Structures are given as C-alpha cells and as structure tokens.
Amino acid sequence: MPRKTLAEFTVEFLQILDEDGNFDADLEPDLPPAELLRLYRGMVRARELDQRMLKLQRQGRIGTFGPCTGQEAPSAAAALAMQKDDWFVGAFRELSGRLLRGEPLTNPLYYYNGWEEGNVQPPEVGRRMLPLAVVVASQVPQAAGLGYAVKYRGEQSAVVCFLGDGATSEGDFHEGLNFAAVWQAPVVFVSQNNQWAISIPRAQQTRSRTLAQKGIAYEIPCLQVDGNDPLACYAAIKEGLDRARAGGGPTLIEAVTYRLLMHTTADDPRKYRDEAEEQEWWRKEPLLRFRKYLEAKRLWDEARENALRDEVRAEVDAAVATFEETAPWPPDRPFEHVFARSEPHLDQQRREFLAGLKEDADA
Question: CB-side exposure of 308: number of CA atoms within 13 Å?
C-alpha cells in the first residue's frame, strides 16, 4: 500500500511592533492608555532594579544572579494579561512580570543575598506566585500539576509558566507538556528563547527549526512571537489564557528574544559570543521600541521619561536601603531548618561550627 499523509503542521510567527516603532494597527491589542503606560513602567522598573543589582553584586553586596536585561517584554506582558487568581510560575529571568504582579522590589535583593525571605510574598500579592526555579525545566511539571488542580476544582483561572530555550531539551519539559495536554490543563507555557543556553548557542542545543513546534507532538497549539515586542507577547499570551479558560487546554509560545548581558554574574559572555551580535540585539531591545510606540501615540515624551526614571530610581534606592538595614541572620540559623526537630548529631555539628567561627575570630 502507498504511504499517505496523516497530518501536516504549520507554525505561525507574530510581530506587531518592530524595532523601529512601526506597528500593525490591525493586530494591535485593544489596550487603554493607562494599561500601556503600566506595561512600560513595569519594564522600566525591572531594568533599573536589574542594573542596580548588577552593581551591588560587583561590589560584593549581593550574591550571584541572572540578569533579565533585554527580556522584560514576555513576563511583563503576561502579568498584564493575567487575572488576579491566575498562577505565575517562573524560572529566574521574569523580574518584570514578578514586579508587575506586585512582588516588592526588596524580594530579589533578599533572595540573591541567600535569604529565603526573598520568596515570601505579601498578603496583597497572594500565594499564586511560585518561588524562583533555578533548576532548568523543574517548574514545568509543577505548572502542569497546578493546571490540573485548577481544572479539577472548577476554578476560572489559569497558569502561565516561563522557561528558557535550553529547558525545551530537558525531560521535565516534555513530561510536563505531555501531562498538560492529556489533562487539557489550562496552562500557557512561554519559552523565552534568548539564543543562548549558558554558553551553548541555540543552534547547537536543539535541531528544531522553532521551539514552538515542540508543542505539536503533544497536540498543543503553538506560536512563535517576537519576544522583544510587548504587544505581540501580550496578544499571544492573552489568546492562550482565553483558550485555557474556555476549556481549550494548554498553549506553547516561543518568545524570540536575547540575553543582552551574562547568563549569571558568574559568567563571561565575551568568551563565547562577539560584541557585534550583542549590539545588533541592543537595537531590537523592548524598552526602546515600546517607548517609540508610546511617543507615536502621543502618550510619552522626554519629560515624562525623565520623571519616570527619577521616580523608579528613587524606589530602587529605597528598596536597597531597606534591604541593607535588615539585620543579618545568625550564621548558625540553617541548622534550625534541616529537620522538624533537633537531632543530636546536628547539635554537635552546630557546636563545632560555632567553635570554628570563634577560633577564626580570635585568630
């Protein structure tokens, strides 16, 4: 018998706003001016805090972290599209979205100083934001499980799960998507393709022409968007959320963006990529193009930009001051959080640890 075609697939690409500020009015989402300005402010806040944290890390005032500069659009757009009861499941480069959802500016400072308090959200933010997931793709099965729970309880809410391009090569990614598809869980998976899996370029860590097409294997609607275009990110994620709430199951979105800085502050990107590539992507970065868009719509100008930068820098200054005024925890505090009750061998280790500190201090 001759072979026959069982199915054919396509992957669409969405861009609404290009790097020069030109936009497609037919595709432009219907967002009121106040929401557009809220989106821009959210991205600016993340950029300012990110840049300050880089300085603090270089000065030894916080620990290693992964900068989000250049990747502000996908998670900020998602936060704008989400409802209050939706779940935000991030990796570790979604600063703009977390802040826009209401996370305090001090949280990243505490977290990257090694304090678990950085994962504690205030009551007004609620408990529907998971802690950072540094282990690659580990959050994907959790997001699928949350989606299943939401559906099981009959809630009118959904889950947005963020991951990097390298995460799509991990087993957890495929297991999570498979479960979400089988359960028809209301989850929008957003893969932020920043072109680099640490020092491995996108072309060397997967042969797939797009990351979006990896959803096809699980019968999940998929779409590739310009990840530096906040309007396209918003439109795509909102479409996925609407589908999820209507019972249409999960969506996979590939947001094509670029990591403008290092993977983490322990990394030196100059060893594996050239400056010309970086400069080309700086021209495409999301804040610059979105400002052009706002100016074209007569919603923004130089005076408003300067006022916003001054306001946000003052917020960041205040957050850093609050963080650095916080009394450090005792060095033996970790011994209290290993087991539910004290154990003799841990007590002995604690005494030895404190004795060693005293000897070092007296030396």
Answer: 19
> Could you tell me which residues come within 8 angstroms of residue 46 by beta carbon, excluding any fewer than 6 positions away?
68, 72, 76, 95, 96, 99
**Could you give the number of structural domains in the chain?**
2
pTM to 2 decimal places: 0.92
User: Which two three-digit tokens encode residue 74?
Assistant: 């996908």
| Catalytic pick among 58, 152, 270, 272 | 272
45, 101, 259, 291: the catalytic one is 259
Q: What is the mean pLDDT of residues 319-332?
A: 90
Lowest mean pLDDT segment, chosen from 51-60, 74-83, 262-271, 342-351: 342-351
Distance CA 6, CA 252 (A): 22
Same domain, 148 and 95: yes
What are the residue ranges of helices labelled H in the chain? 33-58, 72-81, 95-100, 106-111, 139-153, 171-183, 202-205, 230-245, 275-282, 286-296, 302-325, 344-362
Show the tokens assigned to 139. Answer: 């959050």
Do 356 and 208 belong to one domain? no
Let me know if 259 is a catalytic residue: yes
Q: Which domain holds residue 192?
A: 12-329
Q: Give which of 111, 98, 130 is closest to 326, Cα–Cα.
A: 111
| 1 falls within a domain | no
Active site residue 127: no
Give per-residue pLDDT as tens, 221-274. Answer: 999 999 999 999 999 999 999 999 999 999 999 999 999 999 999 999 999 999
112 is catalytic: no
From the list 47, 52, 128, 263, the catalytic residue is 263
